[in-house]
Write a structure and sequence with these properties.
globular, about 35% helix, 2 domains, 5 helices, 4-stranded antiparallel β-sheet, alpha+beta
Length: about 140
């Protein structure tokens, strides 16, 4: 899915959600996408294809998200598990879904700031190979 289709999907979802906080989160995400799409290089500079992360990524990695307009902090461990107030979740998606009350991609919901203050989603860190996606795998029960 390209960025324009993703943006259209976000706007459609924002129109259909029931809660104002969720709508606000979706519209904020859409604004970030538009800002990234329209960002112009300065004075003929070439815009880098990939931005570099300032400083090292060390674990446990402090991360945040917003729940009902309030910031929520967590720690992402090197094995992909996520810890909130001493409670361990198998992965960021399980934690985000539990906090928000609906299924969501935690790798897009949780964010981390590098030493320069630039905000990164966990998904961006996965794509850069700095965070392993998956967390703990749950064993499926066999039927029959």
């Amino acid at each position: 899915m390209d960025t324009q289709h993703g943006l259209a999907l976000l706007l459609r979802a924002a129109n259909e959600v029931q809660t104002a906080d969720t709508r606000k989160d979706l519209l904020t995400w859409a604004e970030e996408m538009v800002a990234e799409m329209t960002k112009q290089p300065r004075n003929g500079e070439r815009r880098p294809v990939t931005e570099e992360i300032a400083g090292p990524v060390t674990f446990p990695l402090p991360i945040t998200t917003n729940v009902a307009g309030q910031p929520t902090s967590a720690l992402l461990h090197e094995d992909g598990t996520l810890e909130i107030d001493g409670n361990l979740f198998a992965n960021p998606s399980e934690a985000a879904s539990g906090l928000l009350g609906y299924r969501t991609n935690g790798y897009r919901v949780w964010k981390w700031k590098d030493q320069a203050g630039h905000s990164w989603t966990l998904e961006a860190l996965v794509h850069k190979g700095l965070v392993r996606k998956g967390g703990l795998r749950r064993k499926r029960k066999r039927q029959g």
